[in-house]
Amino acid sequence: MAIEVRIPTILRNYTDGAKAVQSTGSTLGELFANLDSSHPGIGGRLVEDAKLRRFVNVYLNDEDVRFLGGLDTPVADGDTVTVLPAVAGGAPDAARV
Amino acid sequence: MSLPPLVEPAAELTVDEVRRYSRHLIIPDVGMDGQKRLKNAKVLVVGAGGLGSPALLYLAAAGVGTLGIIDFDVVDESNLQRQIIHGQSDIDRPKAESARDSIRETNPNVEVVLHTERLDSGNAFEIFEPYDLIVDGTDNFATRYLVNDAAVLLGKPYVWGSIYRFDGQASVFWAEHGPCYRCLYPEPPPPGMVPSCAEGGVLGVLCASIGSIQVNEAIKLLAGFGEPLVGRLMIYDALEMSYRSVKVRKDPECPLCGKNPTITELIDYEAFCGTVSDEAQAAALGSTITPLELKEKIDRGDDFVLVDVREPNEYEIVRIPGSVLIPKGEFLNGEALSKLPQDRQVVLHCKSGGRSAEALAVLKGAGFADAVHVGGGVLGWIKQVDPSLPAY
């Protein structure tokens, strides 16, 4: 089964710049584990202690998986998974660079 | 879901105002009623920067009666690529004053209120109180959580936007009718994990794309038409030229707006969000040199390797002579360690000292006991050692 995973700009260094990659799995947790085997390191940016990191949101199609079943959420062929971490925008505060 | 208008209509529009706003008045959804509501509206814009610049100009042009501006910063040349409310002659002026002057030129009917103090937990309620709605154009997590918490605790809606390189996001947070920012992101990322625009950059026009969405939503809420962006997150991709929206649900466990809130007053947001991680702070303690000390080391001919941990495109803009580039990411994934000499001192630097402190923590952990980093980074070098180099 192929599921499209949309990668945010700040994690594209793990995917050679690709905005979307294909991976497989029957749950979100499996999908991310497989994603980490093909793109080593990306798993740790999404998952910590077997849970989704709290500042990273993951959407299955247009639903936030925190309200579906977290990493146990079933995924299926044709689904789109979007990863959306919190980003600071606006004008930079030099004190925080 | 449509919501009732936030603001009661003003008694009347003057003849001049009818002429000025005629293109609004002939839209049935706006009409005289909507324009009178805008005239009575009080909107606070947090930050006259990337998002605040277009937001303020369009809110002013639209005829919002009172605009508050919070900004304690001054205009820098590097702002002008995107902060279109400021101009060349405004460099070094307070942004709030520069923004006020541009607003007066755009629409003299607008009353502008300046708040030039730094927004903090001590003054947020007092500043927010008189306003109907808040537009958040802030750039850092501490202020963003502060704006969210103050808005929720005061029961006010706020329109949020965020930008990074070619990506933008926007939503309306209004706890009374939907989720708040903490429902979307319960916790900020740890310091050093997520880059800011100063590190990652932002396409100037992206500010207009997202800032104008924020104004669009503000106007709809004030005058009470259309479908507000409550409970939805708009995601804009300027490279693909696509807009998508995902659902944002109110989290029943939200510590601020959930069933059993644990946050009932404003907290210490600097401590909540951190600026540099504890590990980086510990590593930098006693292992930080100044740009002048680095210059002395170079002039003395000390044996050390100077490592720039910024990104390749930053290295291309300006660099300290003799430095080699190993981006911070290679320290975090361990690749950098094999590239570094074991028998020479390692000196790290970045743009202003944050990223190099994070990389230093990795080095110290790997046994590079005499490694140091340069406080103030390449910007400090330019200021103290070689002002002929371009700052960015």
Automatic annotation (TrEMBL), chain A:
UniProt-listed InterPro entries: Beta-grasp_dom_sf, Mopterin_synth/thiamin_S_b, Sulfur_Carrier/Prot_Modifier, ThiS/MoaD-like
Gene3D superfamilies: 3.10.20.30
CDD domains: Ubl_CysO_like
Pfam families documented for this protein: ThiS
PANTHER family found in the cross-reference section: SULFUR CARRIER PROTEIN CYSO (PTHR38031:SF1), SULFUR CARRIER PROTEIN SLR0821-RELATED (PTHR38031)
Name of the featured protein: Molybdopterin synthase subunit MoaD
Taxonomy of the source species: Bacteria, Bacillati, Actinomycetota, Actinomycetes, Streptosporangiales
UniProtKB/TrEMBL annotation, chain B:
UniProt keywords, alphabetically: ATP-binding, Membrane, Multifunctional enzyme, Nucleotide-binding, Nucleotidyltransferase, Transferase, Transmembrane, Transmembrane helix
Compartments reported by the entry: Membrane
Signal peptide range: none
Key word Secreted present: no
Database matches in CDD domains: RHOD (cd00158), ThiF_MoeB_HesA_family (cd00757)
GO molecular function, one term: ATP binding
Primary residence: membrane
Topology term for the membrane: Single-pass membrane protein
GO terms under cellular component: cytosol; membrane
SUPFAM superfamilies in UniProt: Activating enzymes of the ubiquitin-like proteins
The keyword rRNA-binding is assigned to this record: no
Annotated ranges, domain Rhodanese: 300-390
NCBIfam families named among the record's database cross-references: PRK05690.1 (NF004281), PRK07878.1 (NF005902)
Family: In the N-terminal section; belongs to the HesA/MoeB/ThiF family.
Protein name as catalogued: Probable adenylyltransferase/sulfurtransferase MoeZ
Organism: Allonocardiopsis opalescens
Lineage: Bacteria, Bacillati, Actinomycetota, Actinomycetes, Streptosporangiales
